[in-house]
Amino acid sequence: MYQRVGGVAYKKDLSNTLKLTTHLDQPEKNFRSIHVAGTNGKGSVSHMLASVLQEAGYKVGLYTSPHLKDFRERIKINGQMIPKSKVTSFIKNHKSFFETHSLSFFEMTVGLAFDYFSTEQVDVAVIEVGMGGRLDSTNIIVPEVSVITNIGLDHTAFLGNTLSAIAKEKAGIIKQNIPVVIGESTPETKEVFESIASEKNAEITFADAMTPQAIEIDLKGAYQVKNKQTVLTVIKVLNQQNKFQIPEKAIKTGLKKVVSNTGLMGRWQVLQKAPKVICDTAHNKEGLTYVLKQLDAEKMKSLHIVLGFVSDKNVEDVLEMFPKKAHYYYCKPGIPRGLDVSVLEEKAIRAGLIGIGYSSVRNAYKAALKNSDLEDLIFVGGSTFVVAEII
Length: 391
Known about the structure:
The protein has 391 residues and is an alpha/beta fold.
């Protein structure tokens, strides 16, 4: 499984997914969809869109990854996780096919999601790309609109080591004659998006060129302002198509109730007040830029940071961004892909950070709580998997 072990589990090929969807009688053709890709923010954007569409009265499927606590978080309808019985019966009914064709964890999960959404007759499904876009297993759908939140230097071993190369991979979700919304762009990535959209005769809209709207949202991360702008632009495109009716009231209510409607966790989530504990799943340079800036604006007596990473990230560049005047508690997320604590300690010392390594995320978090005064702040992050262990 890619999320647990890394690159050895990644498949750059859609052939298995196409075999699977044929085996399942092409369930993805039985519901409308919205396809969301991007380096950062695609999970938040997907949840916001699902919440707004739900408030507009639609039965909404939501497929995201990875999960934090329960595998079934990945597949929801109107905020409710897929029942356990649906997961087990799907595996039981198709196990021989999976084994014969050596399907990956992600391929099976995509098949499960599409089959479930089809069986339950959702009106629309918001589908988040796993990684990249062009060769991602989700890229067999023909959506009502394609969405690319932004481009950053992440997963470079698979997607390329330049912004334009990564943009090209993510632009692989742009379909013939299907509108596409770009959340954030640079001159380098904009050129790629415009070129591919032109080839596909896909109408392109840049959300960062639209006039911002002052609509309240319940997600408190400063970075959510840009994600909200992307969502509002997508909704405008959907309404212009006359295939959806999404009134202003549904937009406002949906954005105020993202967490309660969808169960989204781990985005600038406040876990307790005294000492204040905040966790966030941002795990690359682009995402952490916003998070650390917001952290710097918080009022506190002392700052404690519980920090862990996966081993295939460019940790050196990321560590340079973290504040020097903080107490660090280093840990390894409990997955094979986790970065060893001793390695993290060495890299942190070179970055000028002072801290102590612990045997687990839980022990690091307990130590931070023990050493904190009521006026202090504890931040937990560096990896989705670190956050998952303390939520």
